[in-house]
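hey so u asked for the seq, here:
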Amino acid sequence: MVAAQSKPNEVIQATSFLEQEEENFQWTKQWYPVAVVEHLDASHPHVLQLLGKDLVLWQDGQKQWRCFDDACPHRLIPLSEGRIESDGNLLCAYHAWRFNGEGKCIKIPQSKDAATEAKNCANPSACAVTYPVKNLQGLLWVWPESGEEAQRESELRNPRLIPELEDKTDKVIKLFWYERDIPFGWDFFMENIMDPAHVPVSHHKLYGNRYSDPKYYDMTPLRKFSTQEGFSFEIPPISSKVSRATQDFQPPCFHRIDLTYPDGGQLILAIYASPTRPGWCRQVSCQVLVKNNQGKRPAGFSILGLPIPDWLGHVFSQFFIHQDLAFLHKQEKTMAKRGARKWLEQVYTPNPQDKMVITFRKWLETQAGGGVPWASGCNPELPPVEIDKQKLFDVYSTHTNDCRVCQKALKNIKRASLVSRISSIFCLGFALFLDSRTVALNASNISSPVVNPLFTVAPPVSFWVLLLVAIGLALFSFYLKQFSRLFYVYEFEHYQND
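ran it, structure tokens below
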């Protein structure tokens, strides 16, 4: 591969390691991570979208997570609007049809008699459409094809797991999982994380400096370009703290960034992205720390590598996501407006820092049909650009609403804010009660023009202490309320990030 370039997109012709394979990538015969198990509330069903399909996740009476089409076979009412009953079966809230974990209908209350009910329940048309599910490494994985053949095929392919997490010793440390629905497509998300050159610019102050850190470097391919296994690149260490840096794309959903330190420690950024619907994808990610031979733990990625509660890590994660969100959301729509021209014909990429992005687009074009094949009936048109910043930077519906960890933290913060506010009022009232001036006023003849204890009697120390406590509690309540807004919306503007 050449390092210097004299004309636009010369990098494209320079990637001689690209060797096409005959088979095309099959999008529906893959495992996709769709949720973090510990974040799910097992008491009710959860809405899910994958490759344009509307699905529902729920846990049955045997504590097994299940995935169905989000449509009752009776009248196609969303099963996600139903209930999980005490017997561990899923109830459609429209006519109370019930389904067990295998999708078999076990109850039709409107039946004429028990015999008729049994006959109708036994009809294959009464069954819910089910999809294979795996629970591995703390994630729920869904295979987006249904039926017996899909079940057999799914058993023959392993999900894109993180090998280091199979090490059960204390050498490997997994930090918190984080999942989020992102308002731009799967391909633009993957393109973004394959682009280390943007990090110090877009994430100015959080990780790097836009004015001093952008530098020239080349990217070197590490293994053969493959339809099924993707590709990998190495970049020179851009920090004295790192001895080696690699990026590895494993289709359809896994991208890992490995940073190796001079002492042998390792930081792995494990990032999954599943295509949910046009213009949207779901991110699932975590950091994995591998200790060196002396047992020393490496530093994590920025503030997200600190020993903090999971819910606080979730709050901090949105700071990074939102610094890229607005322009990637709009970039996708801008490219769509330019019509059917190929991606490589719309961009100008003269620097080698774009090699991995270009390779990804080549893989998508030549090996994977040019893009995600959305399910039948799914409108392939992109949604319009969201100009309402409150909606664009929405956190609640894209994360908090379905995260049990953040829901609990939000309730506790609201409760602490309310208790602090009430305590502040109580302290202020008690301080006034103890005010010696008030006592003196009540004991004196206030009609006397000579003696006015309001100005001659000093408040006791307890008054000032309680007053300060009241002010402190009021401020604490106010800032807790302000902080709780981060669970709902977090707006970001680059022009304000000096």
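The first strand starts at residue 32 and ends at 36. DSSP finds 13 helices and 19 strands in the chain.
lmk if thats what u needed
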